[in-house]
Each structure stands twice: as C-alpha cells, then as structure tokens.
Amino acid sequence: MDDYKKTKIQLIRELTILRERIATIEHIGLARPPRVEFDAKIKIQNISDTIDAQGINLSKGGLCFELDEPLKFNVRFEFEEEVHNRQVELIWVRKFGDKYRCGLKFSD
Q: What's the pLDDT tens digit per position in 50-91?
C-alpha cells in the first residue's frame, strides 16, 4: 500500500518497527560500510552440491524455505584493474523492474 493511503496509526506503527530495527543494527554493529560505485561484469559459480532446506509455506505463486546455514557461492569480478575471486553469502534479493538486485556479503 502506498504511504499516502495509510492511516496515521499505520505509519506510526511502521516507523516504530523501523526505529527498533535500526537500534538493533547499531547495537550489534551491523551498520553498513561505505559504498562505492561499481560497474563490472560478475561471474557467479553455481553451487554443485545439493542443499537441504526446510519448507515454511507454499502458495500457487511460490514457496518460502529456511536454511540451516548461509547460501554461499563464489564470484569473480574485476575492480580497479584487479581480478577478485571471493566467496560470498546471499543476504537479500529484491526485484527492480524486470531485473533482480542481490545483496552479497563477503564470507572468505
């Protein structure tokens, strides 16, 4: 629902939840490191092993599952004229128009 369609109570409730999340992030030191612009092709090495997961819910549109450990894979990219091979963990995925953006955390 668009924010302008929400009631004052709904907006206050959302603001309270967001403030609690920010306080938690700051408390446990998960504040975001600084970002730099990065325009490069990335090669992703698929995981060859089978991963066990626990189903949470299912609908006609898809499913939700839970993993016992982070989803890890390897990426290869060039930055500042240097080739990097890093292991990463998938942190989040969001749809942007007809594309998908993924947040990855370096885990090596």
A: 788 899 988 888 888 888 888 888 899 998 889 999 989 888
- Whose tokens are 């839970």? That residue is 66
Alpha carbons 52 and 74: distance in angstroms, whole number: 19
Report whether pLDDT(42) > 70.
yes
Radius of gyration of the chain (CA): 18
pTM over 0.90: no
Whether residue 108 contacts residue 92, with contact meaning beta carbons closer than 8 Å, is answered with no
Instruction: Tell me the C-alpha distance between 86 and 52, whole Å.
Output: 23
- Give the up-direction half-sphere exposure of residue 99: CA atoms within 13 A in the CB hemisphere: 3
| Listed residue (100, 40, 44, 98) closest to 71, CA to CA | 44
CA proximity to 89, closest of 102, 79, 100 = 102
Contacts of 90 (CB under 8 A, 6+ apart): 70, 71, 72, 73, 102, 103, 104
